[in-house]
Each structure stands twice: as structure tokens, then as C-alpha cells.
Amino acid sequence: MKIINPDMPEPYKYETDYRKIPREYLNPRIPKGRNIVKWQPFKSLPIQYEMLDQYVEDQNKIDMPLLSQEQLEEINDKVSYKIENNIISEISYWENGYVYSIQCYIKKVDEINGIMIIMKENNNGKIQLPLSSIMSVE
């Protein structure tokens, strides 16, 4: 068997793992190195990080909720009451995986095109919401 460390005492002459050799027998002039810097990540692929961020964001999304017939009738009753009395409403609706809420006046329901026309409470123009995305009206 070949002697790997000829200058060391007998038990360490054949040792290949420097961690098992006491410090006093090791060469003190060996440079320390870069420590943990060597293993820190390097953003060489920004597209990869964008994809990972998008994946994390997509995990927060929810599927479009399905409403029962009772819930649809309740929403219909509330909408007709709010239109007749021109009362401010809070509408919760689903869009692109998220649930949004808006304070508004309901101006018109277009059943043929399947949209609800609303106006924000500060009269900043009309918005069209698909009837299928509306979750609740308060």
C-alpha cells in the first residue's frame, strides 16, 4: 500500500480524509478558500426565476366557483332591488383566478349578452362584468 502522508505519525500515514487528521499535522499554509460564497446561487437564468415566481403566484389562484340555483336566485333578487332603488352595491366577482370586490351602482343587466353594466361609486365610467363571474351582491 502506498504511503500518502510520509511526514505524519504512523496512524495518519495512510489516511486520505484530511478531516480525520489532527490540525497540528496539516499544512498551515493551505488557503482557507471562499467558504460559503462558493455555494451561493448565481442568477444566470432570469427566465427561470420569472417562471418560478409565476408558479408561486399561480398557486394562490382559485378555480371559478360554481353557484347553486338558490344562490343565483338570491343574487338576482338583490340585483333587481338595487337597480330599482339605485342603491350602492358591493359586488364580488371572479377574474383570472382571483376574487375582487367593487363598490358600485348597478345600471343595467344585459341578459342577451350575459353582462352587467355597473358604475363605480365615484362615477368614473361604466364597467361591464360577465354575469358568469359574479359571485355575490351585497
Q: What is the count of DSSP helices, taking H or I runs of 4+ residues? A: 2
How much of the sequence lies in strands comes to 25-35%
- Structural class designation: alpha+beta
What is the CATH topology of the largest domain? SH3 type barrels
Uncertain runs: none
For the secondary structure, the number of strands is 5
Order of helices and strands: HHEEEEE
Name of the CATH architecture of the largest domain: Roll
Could you please describe the fold and organization of this structure?
The chain has 138 residues and is of the alpha+beta class. The chain folds into two domains: 10-57, no CATH class; 69-137, Roll (SH3 type barrels), CATH 2.30.30. Helices cover 22% and strands 26% of the residues. The chain has two helices and five strands, in the order ααβββββ. It has helices at residues 46-59, 69-85; strands spanning 88-95, 98-110, 115-120, 126-130, 134-137. The chain has a five-stranded antiparallel beta sheet, with helices on one face. A hairpin with a 4-residue loop joins strand 2 and strand 3 (115-120). The radius of gyration is 34 Å and the shape is rod-shaped.
